[in-house]
Specification:
This protein has 303 residues and is an alpha/beta fold. The protein is built from 15 helices and eleven strands. The strands form two sheets. Strands 3, 4, 5, 6, 7, 8, 9, 10 and 11 form a nine-stranded mixed β-sheet that branches. It has a two-stranded antiparallel sheet with strand order 1-2.
């Protein structure tokens, strides 16, 4: 059996730590390819549910350390910097269970500083490290169509690429450790601006008495087209936001980007403004709404 150009036996065992909205299907794609795996999730019932849905040579583990034992590549996909530290570092952390020559991959959207911290901890044990945040949301994870932005060494990237190709449509090494996280910051900065513009456009069309679906059908064929327009404009017009990438997580990502911008003297006035707009959405009770809920801020009268 081939996967990403390599024979399955050449890929080796994997471990996946974090079976949330993204990690659950990502680990599932690896299991479907019959890659022998261990999985770990802080809520054990989620790991049990994953094991009930995927067949093949898989095993759950009681700690990240146990999950990482014997794995050639260990993947982490959790919530934030502190979550990553809790499963990667310490006596029960994944790094403690990894052997020399293995590679740790962090798919969490986190800070560059964390990437450097993990890389140093891995280097002490002769373990490779890649920071590899993803874009594409839950749908991209479920459909195996994510984009992976990677920071680290070329040799480690080449080794892990066959795994990435199981659940991603695009994987690219962006530079040294931390470059993946910096690229993801650019991604989130761009999305924030696009969603605010799309929200204002839909709001304007509604008040002007236009058929929003018809407007989107026309302008999406021109220069205004975007992934957000194709996938979110119609649900925005219907005031549907109980799905997708949560506002709380977007604010976490923008906070990382804005802090980094201050460190490198980059000016992000629009990103800072949209971050405050998302704070308004949180006040409206929309912390778990999809990021397209910026429109709700306009329709609620919070201008």
């Amino acid at each position: 059996m081939y996967c990403g150009g390599l024979v399955l036996s050449e890929i080796g065992r994997a471990a996946f730590v974090g079976l949330g909205v993204m990690g659950f299907p990502m680990a599932g794609h690896l299991a479907i390819k019959e890659i022998p795996m261990n999985v770990y999730n802080r809520t054990s019932s989620t790991a049990d549910r994953w094991l009930s849905e995927y067949t093949g040579e898989v095993a759950s583990a009681a700690t990240p350390r146990e999950a990482a034992k014997g794995a050639d590549v260990v993947f982490i996909c959790v919530g934030n910097d502190d979550d990553v530290r809790s499963v990667a570092l310490g006596g029960d952390g994944a790094i403690a269970g990894m052997s020399s020559g293995a590679v740790l991959v962090d798919h969490t959207t986190a800070s560059k500083e964390l990437a450097l911290e993990l890389a140093a901890a891995c280097a002490d044990k002769d373990i490779g490290f890649l920071d590899a945040p993803v874009s594409g949301g839950q749908a991209g994870a479920e459909n195996g169509a994510l984009t992976v932005m990677v920071g680290g060494q070329q040799t480690d990237f080449d080794r892990v690429l066959p795994y990435f190709e199981v659940y991603a449509k695009k994987c690219q090494l962006m530079g040294g450790v931390g470059a993946g996280q910096l690229t993801k910051m650019v991604n989130q900065i761009c999305i924030a601006g696009i969603l605010q513009g799309l929200s204002e456009g839909v709001h304007f069309a509604q008040l002007a008495g236009l058929d929003v679906d018809g407007v989107v059908d026309v302008i999406s064929q021109g220069a205004a087209q975007s992934w957000q327009m194709d996938n979110r404009a119609t649900t925005m017009a219907r005031d549907e936001f109980e799905f997708g990438f949560a506002v709380n997580w977007m604010r976490k990502d923008l906070d990382i980007a804005l802090k980094t911008a201050r460190q490198i003297d980059a000016r992000l006035p629009l990103a800072a403004l949209v971050d405050q707009f998302y704070a308004d959405v949180q006040v409206l009770g929309g912390g778990r709404w999809d990021t397209s809920s910026l429109l709700r801020r306009l329709t609620s009268g919070q201008k």
